[in-house]
Amino acid sequence: MTDEWQDIPENDGITLGPEEMLAREIAKSKALKVERLQLKDQVERLTAQNRALSDENEALKKQRQAHSGIREDSPEEADIPPSNASRRKGLFLPNRWAFILLAFNLAAIAILLFFLLLKPTT
User: Fold this and answer.
1) What angle do CA 76, 77, 82 make, to 5 degrees?
2) Does 61 have pLDDT greater than 70?
3) 72 and 98, same structural domain?
4) How far is CA 69 from CA 59, 75, 77, in A?
5) Which domain holds residue 27?
6) Torsion 78-84-87-88 (CA) sign
7) How much is the pLDDT for 119?
8) CB–CB of 70/77 below 8 Å?
9) How far is it, in rounded angstroms, from Cα 23 to Cα 51?
């Protein structure tokens, strides 16, 4: 007897017949198709906008290069911001200080050992 009522009830608590379930599935399918088409249109719009912005960016780069006199055959110089260039010059400063401190400490140890060995033993 319970085999006849194995249909799963819907969210609103009413068991739908086959026609109602089919109509609901068709409506869901149509809504998904509409959403898919809207997303596809949005992707096309965004790619076109991205292309336009890339073109504008390239035009501005060329304009900047023309005004500043930077040659086009050296793009790596144009892409380095001034703040990074100033940091590059100071990169070796900590390495120099490390060697200076190492030399100072080794000299101090050598002097201490020298005086320790010269100490008269009693």
Assistant:
1) 125
2) yes
3) no
4) 15, 12, 12
5) 15-79
6) negative
7) 80
8) yes
9) 42
Q: Are residues 94 and 49 in the same domain?
A: no
Q: Report DSSP state, residue 122.
A: -
Phi, psi of 34 (to 5 degrees): -65, -45
Within a domain: 24: yes
Check residue 35 and give its pLDDT. Answer: 95
Mean pLDDT (the chain, rounded):
79
String of DSSP letters for 19-80:
HHHHHHHHHHHHHHHHHHHHHHHHHHHHHHHHHHHHHHHHHHHHHHHHHHT--TT-HHHHHS
At residue 2, the 3 state secondary structure works out as helix
Q: Is residue 22 included in any domain, yes or no?
A: yes
pTM value? 0.40
pLDDT band, very low/low/confident/very high, at 118 (cuts 50, 70, 90): confident
CB proximity list for 61: less than 8 A, separation 6 or greater: 78
- Contact, 70 vs 78, CB < 8 A? yes
